[in-house]
């Protein structure tokens, strides 16, 4: 989005198809009127979800029935090639509202959408908090969030985004294989790699994948435990990044310390970079207090988790003649 808002051609690559579902609708923004009119058209007034259903740990039966009907609508529209920009926007917003901490989400009090707990864990949360899932107005929540997202978007930004949206390259696959991106065509890469096995990306996204008819278990997301395995895998990515970057182009690689500071991932990144023509320019270190997410887990500030993060910046170098020709 930042690339697009700066008038540059945006390219993105992620192994999880969910990423495209979350980013693509932001290039072709519907009006709030279009969103409201489409929500009126979509029929989600169905019977309550049949019991027993494990998702009732998160949702009231009436709410789950509406979510399931909305899910079925998007699946059918996509299969019939009828899914348009308004549908994609509503699907994106609904995906972001599946679970959370406030009445602005479809669920009872639980974790944010990008950290969905298991059904078993949610039942424990419900018992501990003595809570039961309340009825939520699914359409009203989607419309309210859409209003907030579209509130400060001016006509200039809309025109800018739509102008590059059709040309944006959004890839679903491994960042070690991006053959559709031309050699030496990218000026800046900004990325953050898997943090070893500290984050279970597959488990965290199971509910969002369910809503979007994706099998989270079949997505080949890296869950690497050993630093040497991480270095070997990331070396393949660096080869590809070296291929697509122009001479003088930059790579900003965001990492952090993991395992209580026992592993500083920038050291692993520097080991990987030694095998390429990407040379270290500088490193930014952000030492911060915990934010809302840490509090969700009941973690005190500066006690556990990742307290700092680093942005390691590299530049692709070549011989001096090549750089002068490129300039």
Structure description:
This protein is of the alpha/beta class and 327 residues long. The protein folds into 2 domains: 30-152, no CATH class; 174-200 and 216-326, 3-Layer(aba) Sandwich (Rossmann fold). Helix content is 41%, strand content 15%. The chain contains 14 helices and 7 strands. The protein has helices at residues 2-5, 18-23, 32-41, 61-79, 85-96, 119-129, 138-150, 155-165, 201-204, 206-211, 227-244, 265-273, 292-296, 320-326; strands spanning 11-14, 169-172, 186-191, 245-258, 263-264, 278-287, 308-316. The strands form 2 sheets. Strands 3, 4, 5, 6 and 7 form a 5-stranded mixed sheet that branches. A hairpin with a 4-residue loop joins strand 4 and strand 5 (263-264). Helix 3 crosses helix 5 (85-96) and helix 11 (227-244) packs across helix 12 (265-273). The longest helix is centred in the first third of the chain and has 19 residues, at 61-79. The radius of gyration is 22 Å and the shape is globular. The model is unreliable at 320-327 (pLDDT under 50).
